[in-house]
């Protein structure tokens, strides 16, 4: 995609000029790293299994961990939607974390003031923000629900149809409507065969990681293993 090309080139220039990037999703991060062969750089992840990372050279990136205080129960998708509504570039904040019934978001320090001022609601619920130490996340690990399902092929449309119970014709509409994300990019290729560690999202049905084939059945189908990300 043309948009991705400019994002990648912009971040490559930052590293060449001894600066650091903001938070990059795995797709963009990998493309930037592919262009940086021969360059010295490091990648910072705020915690184990963090999705977004920051590439840096000499200067360690300045980030903050904000706890979102609310009397009401919040969900990952609600928090994300409210952050997107602030019209702040998405590379200015990292992962949203729900941990021990607390809600957190990691941000670049440069947008702390505007987020502190503008991020006062999640949906219709009032919130407050409190700065926390990054040490809070030292023992944090993402939660997954392990799934095993039987499918006739590893095609992504076949697997999604099995997960959702939606027929193949309506699954095609989901692809056409940009409702399927594969490895952090919109996917229109219905016949793509899933590979180990592929990550895909289905709008309204959640996010999944394909682990692999467990075994073949006598009828020539596959028993496959996946992890579903738990969206608290």
Radius of gyration: 19 Å
CATH architecture of the largest domain: Roll
Largest sheet descriptor: 6 strands, antiparallel
**Structural category:** alpha+beta
SS element count, helices? 6
The span between the termini is 32 Å
Please state the overall shape, judged from the principal axes of the Cα atoms.
Answer: globular
Beta fraction: 25-35%
CATH superfamily of the largest domain: RNA-binding S4 domain
What's the number of extended β-strand segments? 14
Indicate the CATH topology of the largest domain.
Structural Genomics Hypothetical 15.5 Kd Protein In mrcA-pckA Intergenic Region, Chain A
Uncertain residue ranges: none
CATH class of the largest domain: Alpha Beta
Helix content: 25-40%
Spatial order of strands in the largest sheet: 9-14-13-12-10-11
Give the mean pLDDT: 92
Number of domains: 3
Write a concise keyword list for the protein shown above.
alpha+beta; Alpha-Beta Plaits; Structural Genomics Hypothetical 15.5 Kd Protein In mrcA-pckA Intergenic Region, Chain A; 3 domains; 6 helices; 14 strands
Structure commentary:
With 232 residues, the protein is of the alpha+beta class. The chain folds into 3 domains: 2-56, no CATH class; 63-137, 2-Layer Sandwich (Alpha-Beta Plaits); 144-229, RNA-binding S4 domain (Structural Genomics Hypothetical 15.5 Kd Protein In mrcA-pckA Intergenic Region, Chain A, Roll). Helix content is 25%, strand content 31%. It contains 6 helices and 14 strands. It has helices at residues 2-16, 26-35, 76-84, 112-118, 156-164, 168-176; strands spanning 42-44, 54-56, 63-69, 93-99, 102-108, 121-122, 125-126, 128-132, 144-151, 180-182, 185-186, 199-202, 206-216, 222-229. The chain has a 6-stranded antiparallel beta sheet, covered by helices on one side. It has a 4-stranded antiparallel beta sheet with strand order 4-5-3-8, with helices on one face. A hairpin with a 3-residue loop joins strand 12 and strand 13 (206-216). Helix 1 (2-16) crosses helix 2. It is globular.
């Amino acid at each position: 995609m043309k948009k991705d090309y400019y994002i990648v080139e912009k971040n490559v220039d930052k590293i060449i000029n001894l600066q650091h990037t903001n938070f990059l999703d795995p797709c963009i991060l990998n493309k930037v790293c592919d262009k940086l062969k021969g360059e010295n750089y490091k990648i910072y992840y705020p915690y184990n299994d963090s999705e977004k990372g920051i590439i840096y050279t000499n200067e360690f990136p300045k980030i903050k961990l904000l706890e979102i205080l609310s009397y009401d129960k919040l969900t990952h998708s609600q928090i994300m939607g409210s952050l997107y509504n602030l019209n702040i570039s998405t590379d200015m904040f990292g992962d949203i974390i729900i941990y021990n019934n607390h809600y957190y978001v990691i941000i670049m320090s440069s947008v702390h003031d505007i987020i502190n001022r503008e991020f006062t609601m999640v949906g219709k619920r009032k919130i407050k923000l409190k700065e926390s130490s990054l040490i809070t996340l030292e023992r944090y690990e993402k939660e997954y629900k392990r799934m095993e399902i039987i499918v006739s092929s590893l095609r992504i449309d076949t697997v999604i149809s099995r997960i959702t119970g939606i027929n193949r014709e309506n699954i095609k509409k989901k692809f056409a409507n940009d409702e399927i994300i594969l490895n952090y990019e919109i996917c229109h290729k219905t016949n793509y065969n899933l590979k180990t560690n592929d990550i895909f999202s289905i709008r309204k049905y959640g996010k999944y990681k394909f682990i692999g084939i467990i075994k073949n059945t006598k009828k020539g189908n596959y028993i496959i293993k996946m992890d579903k990300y738990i969206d608290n």
